[in-house]
Amino acid sequence: MEGDIVQMGAYIGAGLACLGMGGAGIGVGHVAGNYLAGALRNPSAAAGQTAFLFIGIAFAEALGIFSFLVALLLMFAV
Amino acid sequence: MASENGGLVIKPMDQFQVKALFGGDISWYTPTNVTLWMALTVLAATALMVYGARGRALVPSRAQSAAEMTYGFIYKMVEDVAGRDAVRFFPYIFTLFMFVLFANLLGLIPFAFTTTSHIAVTAVLAFTVFFSVTALGFILHGTKFLKLFWVSSAPLPLRPVLALIEVISYFVRPVSHSIRLAGAMMAGHAVAKVFAGFAAALGAAFFLPILAVTALYALELLVAVIQAYVFTILTCVYLKDALHPAH
């Protein structure tokens, strides 16, 4: 047994930060799924909208990245 | 990588260590593996563009097609996302794309070092974009640039709240911009390393993790290109905000 309770809390918190991935996954899946639904309804307009698809995915993903940042801070900065 | 007492010892983060090329302590001028691979990245990108554009053949060779297609692809993206008047910033955006793309792709070579997996590297790229875009906005529009935070299409009582949110999201941009790229690169390489560690530990069933690593490698190729694309397209989005700040 080594370490202290602060370190334990930091490790548990870093593990909990992984839950943020779930939220980002829902968000990215929502963007991509809706894009596909729209693209299947009107395939001719799909090609022009791929840029917005990637922008939307990037923004949805950013929140997941913040949970990764929190995990990093807990592991290495606290 | 099985240790002496039978347990698994996988060190997936060891591959991201910065090492001096010729030994000794690391100072700001020491050539390290990061400098080496960044130099190789610049060389590879320059080589493709210079070698590709050298012939200017009517029927392009493979190198010329690759160079022309990347050029045309990014040119169209700048035009579509940031607008016609953003094209004068195209050289910078194209340089950014080529650097990130080649850094990602070169990092996928076994035993190579992924420079973009370090937040220090991507943060420099992202903060350069952030500061230059902000300065550009103020130079072009003066204080009218602050209209970016004042959402005039929203009801008046909501506007101060929205302004606060807009300001926060504006200053968070370089953070998410840089960590997205570094995080994706770091996570992908760490996962590949963990699976490679399984292959060493499983003994007779070693082919299962190797199949997984092969599939992961294909995915990583895709991620390398998509992350370079996303990095560039977000630069275009930020540039558009600086050129046309009014909502």
UniProtKB/TrEMBL annotation, chain A:
GO MF terms held by the record: lipid binding; proton-transporting ATP synthase activity, rotational mechanism
Sorted UniProt keywords: ATP synthesis, Cell membrane, CF(0), Hydrogen ion transport, Ion transport, Lipid-binding, Membrane, Transmembrane, Transmembrane helix, Transport
Membrane association type: Multi-pass membrane protein
Boundaries of every V-ATPase proteolipid subunit C-like domain copy: 12-74
Primary subcellular site in the record, as a coarse category: membrane
Residues flagged as site, Reversibly protonated during proton transport: E61
Record's keyword annotation contains Metal-binding: no
Single GO cellular component term: plasma membrane
Coiled coil: none
Top-rank lineage group of the source organism: Bacteria
Subcellular location field: Cell membrane; Membrane
Transmembrane residue ranges: 12-32, 52-77
Record-stated family: Belongs to the ATPase C chain family.
Role played: Key component of the F(0) channel; it plays a direct role in translocation across the membrane. A homomeric c-ring of between 10-14 subunits forms the central stalk rotor element with the F(1) delta and epsilon subunits. F(1)F(0) ATP synthase produces ATP from ADP in the presence of a proton or sodium gradient. F-type ATPases consist of two structural domains, F(1) containing the extramembraneous catalytic core and F(0) containing the membrane proton channel, linked together by a central stalk and a peripheral stalk. During catalysis, ATP synthesis in the catalytic domain of F(1) is coupled via a rotary mechanism of the central stalk subunits to proton translocation.
PANTHER family reported for this sequence: ATP SYNTHASE LIPID-BINDING PROTEIN, MITOCHONDRIAL (PTHR10031), ATPASE PROTEIN 9 (PTHR10031:SF0)
Protein name: ATP synthase subunit c
Lineage start: Bacteria, Pseudomonadati, Pseudomonadota, Alphaproteobacteria, Rhodobacterales
